[in-house]
TrEMBL record:
Keyword Coiled coil tagged: no
CDD domains per record: Anticodon_Ia_Leu_BEm, LeuRS_core
Name of this protein: Leucine--tRNA ligase
InterPro entries recorded: aa-tRNA-synth_Ia (IPR002300), Leu-tRNA-ligase (IPR002302), Leu_tRNA-synth_edit (IPR025709), M/V/L/I-tRNA-synth_anticd-bd (IPR013155), Methionyl/Leucyl_tRNA_Synth (IPR015413), Rossmann-like_a/b/a_fold (IPR014729), tRNAsynth_Ia_anticodon-bd (IPR009080), Val/Leu/Ile-tRNA-synth_edit (IPR009008)
Recorded GO MF terms: leucine-tRNA ligase activity
Domain (Methionyl/Leucyl tRNA synthetase) ranges: 41-160
Source organism phylogeny: Bacteria, Bacillati, Bacillota, Clostridia, Eubacteriales
Aminoacyl-tRNA synthetase class Ia domain sequence ranges: 421-609
First and last residue of the signal peptide: none
Classification via HAMAP family: Leu_tRNA_synth_B (MF_00049_B)
Gene: leuS
Length: 803
């Protein structure tokens, strides 16, 4: 055979696949079961692929190749999440349209991806910044608006007066703008948002039916932050009332003060009654400088002040309770007010110490002089109430029920659920995103463009930089004016966030050229959900939550056939530098460029190496020596299986057992994405084949089919050398026979009176008499007494009982 040359082999097969459209999926072919394998599509940055990309992409590639051989009609598409900041920055500095930069990068990425030999159906490539695509992003957003889930409402934002713009939390440092150091305040402004809490219950339920990592499901549950409790109304002395939300109603006799959110409505309504108005106003102004994150940080000092002269009444015992404000209470959560129980809530405890307020312990079981005795420490432990009138002596769990009932019967309480999950702010003051397709009419009403006017295309600008921090689209003075069919107004100039297109792109791949609907319903019914989705864990609560929301919305509208879009999810681990340090911008010396590896060793080596590094899910360091090891293994496979003399027609059964074991292990491991262990088994098989010196043709061919999923170029080439002239991609996946892989001998301990004296190797199907005979032979020199009993436990033990 000739020597292995990765360059000629890989070029040849990439050309073949492209010319023959080998991996083009006929989505209308419903005659086979479907399999939809999806990768998280990349942002086409200026630097091209990094070593982390091929890892997840190879994982789905192997799966899709196996599924194709198993008789599935496979959809494995690729595209680009192509709106975003780098392209916009390029446009600002060069004055060129960001689409130019984007297209150039897409071309580079696509070339690199083709060089890795993935089985993508390139005819279905999409890019979120393509108007043909974003027409439907706009259309779905309009649907969300019409259904009441997309809203234009007042939201607290970080406002910088000097820059005249809204800043994101990470652009604000210590109440000042990162750029320029100007003061930033929290201010209510009209924003486009999507009402995520409206989907909270459905999202929680949906998690039960999908095969996702438990840790990711937990992150989503925590993010949604469902909290069940009671809302209780408190009368204000001299008129008025307000409600609090608590998850610990059992502590109501321990209230010694109340805390209101400084920026909430309740405080506003009390302003003309407070005796220390100046102090209160100053504190409110102070609070406006902080974001929620700083406010709720656990170990910050609990600042605030009293609302002098204001009291409320505890409904369970009629006690007069003083009111305070404190920034740890958020206006946007629950009712924006809390009943403070310093003995049983650490934040209240610290606030009480700082403001010199009494404490009353109401749950027994710990000393509360240094620290609060909190619910995570008393729940479910049988702790009992004290200092709680008729509820004293009840367990916490009993008291929760009884006190709630009392308050509900009094007509001052109701059980409620809150979610920590907030509105998803859905607009940015940026150019390179989907324009929100609406107009603010002269009468102030919002008008969404009729479907015929979609896509609303981004107008090219002379200057892509927003003036005075305003949205860049404000520069499109003419475009901004709308006057059509009697509707006059100005267009929205904010654009959608990066996560808009990626929230539904997986449906578009199924029918990417459809200009009548976002995707044909019959096709969606056949192809959804995605069977396997692979991508980084950093998307656990962002993209993966947004996608579930958009899909669930479309499902509720009858436009998606499934409640959950991604049936099985797998996160790939990070590829670290040689010394275990995260690769990337901070450590450019450790960056491994996949194209360099492809050049030197070939894509098959890179694929094999990345899959052999360890389990997909874990992070692992790059190892250049192991890259060479992968290369050597391919050469070893090549040398044997392309050698005509070694591939034989007769089967002397030397390899039968290892062959069936290999087919079984590879099939099962592939199914679970256990590629490293599957490869280890293939290596064992190849060792055995070398030992045997020849290999039956059937085994050789079936081995190459499995091997070709990992190393498709060399797999195709060997397949051809074995005498085939068609692609290997649609060959039938090998089957294994359990009966052919049983061990033919067994090792059995031989005992005298229960103590092991020797071990004998016997045929697996040995008879009782033969086993005992062999056992006695092995210990003949020790058989000195009277044998009274001979026991054989098949396959396990031979025991000779002697006196
Ligand atoms: C009294 C109490 C006593 C509380 C006790 C806890 C322990 P989650 O689980 O996050 O829902 N809370 C309510 N609204 C708040 C707001 N807007 N800002 C800050 N804190 C708020 O937490 C609910 C608990 O957080 C509520 O139960 C309330 O304090 C506080 F021993 O009420 B608790």
């Amino acid at each position: 055979s000739t020597a292995y040359n990765h360059k000629t082999v890989e070029k040849k097969w990439q050309k073949y696949w492209q010319e023959n459209e080998t991996f083009k999926t006929d989505v209308w072919d419903f005659s086979k079961p479907k399999y939809y394998a999806l990768d998280m599509f990349p942002y086409p940055s200026g630097v091209g692929l990094h070593a982390g990309h091929p890892e997840g992409y190879t994982a789905t590639d192997i799966m899709s190749r196996m599924k194709r051989m198993q008789g599935y009609n496979v959809l494995h598409p690729m595209g680009y999440d192509s709106f975003g900041l780098p392209a916009e920055q390029y446009a600002v500095t060069t004055g060129n349209h960001p689409a130019e930069f984007t297209q150039k990068n897409i071309a580079t990425f696509s070339k690199q991806l083709r060089e890795l030999g993935f089985d993508y159906d390139w005819s279905k490539m999409i890019a979120t910044s393509d108007p043909k695509f974003y027409k439907w992003t706009q259309w779905i957003f309009k649907k969300l608006y019409e259904a009441g889930y997309a809203k234009h409402i007042d939201m607290p934002v970080n406002w910088c007066e000097e820059l005249g713009t809204v800043l994101s939390n990470d652009e604000v440092i210590d109440g000042k703008s990162e750029r320029g150091g100007y003061p930033v305040v929290r201010k209510n402004m009209k924003q486009w948002v999507i009402d995520q809490p409206a989907f909270a219950e459905k999202l929680l339920e949906g998690l039960e039916e999908i095969d996702w990592p438990e840790s990711t499901k937990d992150m989503q549950r925590n993010w949604i932050g469902k909290s069940t409790g009671v809302e209780v109304e408190f009368e204000i002395v001299d008129g008025g009332k307000f409600s609090i939300f608590t998850t610990c109603i059992e502590t109501i006799y321990g209230i010694t003060f109340m805390v209101l959110a400084p920026d909430g409505e309740i405080v506003k309504s009390l302003m003309d009654r407070v005796e220390n108005k100046e102090e209160v106003e100053a504190y409110i102004a102070e609070t406006a400088k902080k974001n929620d994150f700083d406010r709720t940080e656990l170990n910050k000092t609990k600042s605030g002040c009293r609302l002098e002269g204001i009291y409320c009444i505890n409904p369970v015992n009629g006690k007069k309770v003083p009111l305070f404000i404190g920034d740890f209470v958020l206006a946007s959560y629950g009712t924006g007010a809390v009943m403070a129980v310093p003995s049983h809530d650490q934040r209240d405890f610290e606030y009480a110490i700082a403001h010199n307020i009494d404490m009353i312990q109401v749950i027994e079981g710990a000393d509360v002089s240094e620290h609060a005795f909190e619910k995570q420490d008393y729940l479910g432990k049988g702790c009992k109430l004290i200092n709680s009138e008729e509820f004293t002596g009840l367990t916490v769990e009993e008291a929760k029920v009884a006190i709630t009932k009392k308050l509900v019967d009094m007509g001052v309480a109701k059980e409620t659920v809150n979610y920590h999950f907030r509105e998803w702010i859905f607009a940015r003051q940026r150019y390179w995103g989907e324009p929100v397709p609406c107009v603010y009419k002269e009468d102030g009403e919002i008008y969404f463009l009729p479907d015929e006017e979609l896509p609303l295309i981004l107008p090219p600008l002379d200057d892509y930089k927003g003036k005075n921090g305003k949205a860049p689209l404000e520069n499109a003075v003419e475009w901004k004016q709308y006057d059509k069919n009697g509707i006059k107004g100005v267009r929205e100039t904010a654009t959608m966030p990066g996560s808009a297109g990626s929230s539904w792109y997986y449906m578009r791949y199924i029918d990417p050229d459809n200009d009548k609907e976002f995707a044909n319903q019959e096709l969606l019914k056949h192809w959804m959900p995605v069977d396997l989705y692979v991508g980084g864990p950093e998307h656990a609560v962002g993209h993966l939550m947004y996608s579930r929301i958009w899909n669930r919305f479309l499902y509720d509208q009858g436009l998606s056939p499934v409640k959950e879009p991604f049936k099985k999810l797998v996160h790939q681990g990070m590829i670290l530098g040689e010394n275990g340090i995260k690769m990337g911008k901070r450590f450019p010396e450790f960056v491994v460029n996949p194209s360099d590896i492809v050049e030197e060793y070939g894509a098959d080596t890179l694929r094999l190496y990345e899959m052999f590094m360890g389990p997909i899910e874990v992070s692992k360091p790059w190892n250049s020596d192991a890259v060479q090891g992968a290369y050597r293994f391919i050469k070893r496979v090549w040398a044997f299986f392309t050698d005509e003399e070694k591939i034989v027609d007769e089967n002397d059964n030397t390899l039968t057992k290892i062959y069936h074991q290999t087919v079984k292990k590879v099939t099962n491991d592939f199914e679970e994405l256990g590629y490293n262990t599957a490869i280890a088994q293939m290596m064992t098989f190849v060792n055995e084949v070398y030992k045997a010196g020849k290999c039956p043709k059937e085994y050789a061919e079936n081995f190459i089919k499995m091997f070709s999923c990992i190393c498709p170029h060399v797999g195709e080439e060997i397949w051809q050398i074995l005498g085939h002239n068609d692609t290997i991609a649609f060959e039938k996946w090998p089957e294994y026979d359990e009966s052919k892989m049983v061990e033919d001998t067994i090792k059995v301990p031989v005992q005298i009176n229960g103590k092991t004296k020797a071990v004998v190797e016997l045929p697996a199907d040995v008879s009782k008499d033969d086993a005992i005979l062999a056992g006695k032979e092995a210990i003949a020199d020790k058989l000195t007494g009277n044998v009274v009993k001979e026991i054989y436990v098949p396959g396990r033990i031979i025991n000779i009982v002697m006196k």
